[in-house]
Amino acid sequence: MSIQAEFQTLKQHLQTVIVGQEALLDKMLIALLTGGHVLLEGPPGLAKTTAVKTLATGVHASFQRIQFTPDLMPGDVMGSDVLDVNTGALSFVKGPIFNEIVLADEINRAPPKVQSALLEAMAEKQVTAGGQTRALPEMFLVMATQNPLEQSGTYPLPEAQLDRFMLHVVLDYPDEAEELEILRRDRAHHFGEDKDAFNAFLTPEKVIHARHSVAEQYVSESVERYMVALIAATRKLGELDSVMQGVLEVGASPRASIALLHAASAYAWLQGRDFVTPDDVITLLPDVLRHRLIVSFSGRAQKWTPDSIIQKLIELVPVPMLEQ
Fold first, then answer.
1. What structural domains does the chain harbor?
2. pLDDT tens across 141-183, in order?
3. What gap in Å lies between CA 199 and CA 143, rounded to an integer?
């Protein structure tokens, strides 16, 4: 079985556990294939935690869920030096961040100190504590959740940290047919009608190998220019359409272009192609951009949102023709 087929088998297994949420499953696999971190935003009860845990099990990755709370300290996440009462020496005890897949549950409940410490781990894949820097696992990946409905006791994520997330996926409630299926599966679970355990063939080593394959995807110059044009347009909206003058306070940085390239390449690979199309770029653009755009007061007064601005960008920036 090819490694692409193994990823399709993993997705099929995820679909047997998670009803609907097709976009969530695709974006989680894209994150796995690129090593990019993902911010999942949606109301409670949409199986975000279950999806991440099932993904970790499917690739035999070490997994840790961290419940972020206002009283959390950096050492609780990163680890700290502990005194050995027998020898009198300090030894470092690793925190839960030293796992291959980390679920940062309700990340916006953590105080700024914890978020700052997490920034190094996400950006550099390393942790500095006690004057020593320690590398995180090669497959290290953060999948964070936040609840958009409840703001009491939360700390908005700073722009620098938001920019470290490759994708920001917004989830919605299932439709009635999907919710009916959820009820039936839950009933089957309670009556012991679960399917046999998933026999995962993927391993962290195979995931790393797949990442190399994704990095070798062919991207034509016209598609590269299209990506750059979309991201650069966020910094000069007024030049594209005078109506949008001053709508954004801050546009996206070149890190967004890199994230778009990696995400589109992984998406194409999952579709069984070895090249990236403009459609791949358009599909991933909202998740790559929505957390990187800061709408101005004027823009909010005009009812602009990051998602509506992104749709406008797709309309304004010419789509290149595929090379023959």
1. 3-72+101-123+139-190 (3.40.50.300), 218-316 (1.10.8.80)
2. 999 998 776 666 677 787 888 888 999 999 888 788 888 887 8
3. 23
